[in-house]
Amino acid sequence: MAVIVHEDFQFIVQGITGREALNFTRECLQYGSKIIGGVTPGKGGREVYGVPVYDTVREITETQRVDGTIITVPLAFAPDAAYEAIDAGIKEVVIITEGIPRKDASAVVEYAALHGARVIGPNCLGVIVPDVCRFGSLGGPAVDCRKAFKPGVVGVMSRSGGMTTEICNALTLSGLGVSTAISIGGDPVIGSTYVDLIPLFEADEDTKAVVIYAEPGGTAEAELARWTQENNSRLPIVAFVAGRFMDEMPGMSFGHAGTVVNKKVDSPADKMRRMREAGISVAEEIGDIPNLVRERIGN
Amino acid sequence: MAMFIRVDVDNSIVEKTPGLAGKLVEVCPVKIFKLASKANAVEVVENNVDECTLCDLCTQASPQGVQVIKLYE
Amino acid sequence: MRFYEFEAKQLLKKHRIPLVQSELAQTADEAQKLAADIGGPVILKPQAIAPGVAAASMREASDPAGAKAAAAELLGLDDGGRKPNGILVEARPTGEAVYSLSFTYDGTSKRPVVAAADMAGKIDDLGDTHPERIVRRHFSSLYPFSDYIAKELAKSLALEGNDLKRMTRIVSGLARLFLDYDLADLDVTSLVKLGDGNFVVLDVEADLEIEARHRQRPMLDELGFAKEDLRQVREPTEFELEGARIDEEDPRGIISPIAEFDGNIGLVIGAGGGSLTLTDAVRKHGGRPANYAAIGGNPSVDKARRLTKLVLTKPGVDKIAVMSNVVSNTRADLVARGVIKGITELGFEPADKILIFRVPGAWEADAAKILKKYGVEYCDRTVSISEAARRAVEKVG
């Protein structure tokens, strides 16, 4: 079992000839992922590390099954790339591009919902099921990626791409390992929040606990706390909340676009209080996460 | 100048394959190559050499004509 | 990016939202004259950005002389290192009823939402004290705004007849303005129904989505926004402005945000989440960061080089800590190249200037080789973020 991706998961990369996409396309291929095509307008007919490049998404979907797409095109073209993928029938859309205004992100997510597609991101690094499929940019080159992500029992959701790997690395070093890790994105409007995704982990028999990485800004943590109280989940949750220093600096934005303390619910202190009240364990340091997970799953 | 990477180009090999010079310019994600004034040849843009991401696309395009050397090894 | 209230009101006026009589004064004498023109008691609002300053400093004046005295005092306020950008002098009609409206994006439903209450105030605060007085309607940023949504909202405020129609027009106009101008938040904290049945907006706060500032340039030009004016809560320092320039000039990777603090540990840290975690860790171990500078999205060697030089030449900074979460897309080797290049260009030995280099992950084997060549110890992934921060704090003394 795995969440979102699986062993035969086939995907494409939109913007495949860019500096970043070249990097992670090669890394995914080394890792064993099935990238069956790439799209860069005007560069159709080329090849990147053996992956054929097309001008349009439909050229690929007309002849092959495409389960997902990674969008890493420049920001002005990102919503258009997402609409193209959704209209071509792709159901799992990861948007790596950073800096998309929330109005556009909101429109893309609404369009996806109308067409039965799921958006992960924007401003994320994608999904990985260790040793099964890497769908995105998590972990770096295969050799480095394997050090951070070993198969195991903990599901991870993180508003920070970088901290996804940091936390998974800690879980891997501790021997607990990772079932599925999802970098959900750091923007104020993202396609899939903790509450949208946690039922997938709930249904995944490999997952025994969930770890989330949280930041100042937004209501996602409060929603998760409410979900935990309202649903009799079998999964213990451990949370880490970064940016505590920001409680002293209202109105200033650090980290991601969605990271700002303007309202009470934005504050790390408020998030920690709500989550603790809902029975979620809150870790003081990244290094404490594995032990808290062990305590909770009785291992 | 470049402290970490050196890119050596043998234009006598590059010029034997029509279109190769243009391909080198096109594949490099950090613009290390530019077309030389001489036909079918490239020049190395020294300012961009340390930006090399070791993507191997240039050496794949011309295994004999281009060498990328890590100066820290 | 926060608008001054007088700017927000210009936008509302353009969209034909009824406003209370309101003029901007740049001097105390102007304020006196405007108060005399309005006649009767007036409200004076300093135009400020720093959180709470504007709201905490509103003054009421019963006559023009009082307005002059209040304006003189308000013009001297500190707005995060700036002076207020003038004083709004406004009439203060009393009404039969008062409402508040708030437009924002709901991260849970991922859609824009409008909330309303039949009392004045910020909807966020009213949510704590009077949750039962608040009504909400979601709308769409995919489809054009349709007036019936505003009508439904007005109906759920128990409005009828002309009140319902007037409120529908105001909410529809504000919703379109909110979408058209890429606002992140729009709060009308006081909307009054006058004795003659008309509604007027008294107080409004508006924030532009910072990521949309480039495509909203025509509107910002019209309001007289300078290009580099990001409306931070305090005036940006030269260090912060230079950091922003370095970021703008090279689209490869991101070194934003960058902020200046008054400590002594120079930080080159990555990325969004890692930088938050690392800043917390440095402070937890008693360290005093000299700056905040998140690097992510795989910055170019040149960007890392320029950032390193900026941080290392900041007065009071002798050494830098280069730390990150386990990196995925950002490459440890490219960061190492940039940092070492920056230090050597300043004429220093990398080993003398780097407190710690903890950037495990993508391309770490190459990063370790680069650092070894320059005599710098490379910390691998077995050194935790907290331990790395502790070592940096200990070394800086």
In words, what does this structure look like?
The complex is a heterotrimer of chains A (299), B (73) and C (397). Chain A is an alpha/beta fold and 299 residues long. Chain A has a single domain, classed as Rossmann fold (3-Layer(aba) Sandwich). Helix content of chain A is 33%, strand content 21%. In chain A, the strands form 2 sheets. A 7-stranded mixed sheet of chain A has the order 3-4-2-1-5-6-7, sandwiched between helices. A 7-stranded mixed sheet of chain A has the order 9-8-11-10-12-13-14, sandwiched between helices. Chain A is globular, with a radius of gyration of 19 Å. By secondary structure, chain B is α+β, with helices and mostly antiparallel strands. Chain B has one domain (5-70): Alpha-Beta Plaits, CATH 3.30.70.20. Chain B is built from 3 helices and 4 strands; from the N terminus they run βααββαβ. In chain B, the strands form 2 sheets. Chain B has a two-stranded antiparallel sheet. In chain B, strands 2-3 form a two-stranded antiparallel ribbon. Chain C has 397 residues and is of the alpha+beta class. Chain C is 40% helix and 21% strand. Chain C is built from 15 helices and 14 strands. Chain C has helices spanning 5-14, 28-38, 53-56, 64-74, 123-129, 147-156, 161-180, 217-223, 238-249, 272-284, 301-312, 332-345, 350-353, 364-373, 385-396; strands spanning 22-25, 42-46, 59-61, 87-91, 97-106, 111-117, 134-138, 183-193, 199-208, 258-260, 266-270, 291-295, 320-323, 354-358. In chain C, helix 10 (272-284) packs across helix 15. The mean pLDDT of chain C is 93. At the B-C interface, loops of B face helix 12 and helix 14 of C.
